[in-house]
Design brief:
This protein is an alpha+beta fold and 102 residues long. The protein is built from three helices and three strands, in the order H-E-E-H-E-H. Strands 1-2-3 form a three-stranded mixed β-sheet. Helix 1 crosses helix 2. About 7% of the residues have low confidence.
Length: 102
C-alpha cells in the first residue's frame, strides 16, 4: 500500500469515526422509542444504516432517517452526504409475512 492510499484510509477512518460519534449523540432519542440505528458502512461521503427494534417497520422510519438522522449528520460531520437505508425490505418485511395474497 502506498503512502497516498494509507493517508486516504486514515481520512476515511476519521470520517467514519465522526459519523459514529454523531450517531451516539442521536441514538438515545431512537432508543427512547424502542429502536436503534446501526452504521453498516461508509461509502464515499454516504452512510449505509439499518434501523432496528421498534424503528424497523415504523411508518415514520423514512422521515426519521431523512429529516432527523441525515440532517443531524450533515450538521455534525463536515462534508457528509446522505443516509442510505439498508434495512431489509425497507423495514417492512414483517408486514409481507402477515398479508394474504388474493
Amino acid at each position: 500500500m502506498g503512502e497516498a492510499q494509507a493517508g486516504m484510509d486514515g481520512v476515511n477512518q476519521e470520517f467514519e469515526r465522526q459519523i459514529e460519534t454523531a450517531l451516539e449523540k442521536i441514538r438515545p432519542a431512537l432508543q427512547a422509542d424502542g429502536g436503534d440505528i446501526e452504521l453498516l458502512s461508509v461509502v464515499g461521503r454516504d452512510a449505509y444504516v439499518r434501523l432496528t427494534g421498534a424503528c424497523s417497520g415504523c411508518s415514520s422510519a423514512q422521515f426519521t432517517l431523512q429529516a432527523g438522522v441525515q440532517e443531524f449528520l450533515r450538521r455534525e460531520v463536515p462534508g457528509f452526504g446522505e443516509v442510505i437505508d439498508d434495512t431489509p425490505d425497507g423495514g417492512y418485511g414483517w408486514r409481507h409475512d402477515l398479508m394474504e395474497t388474493y
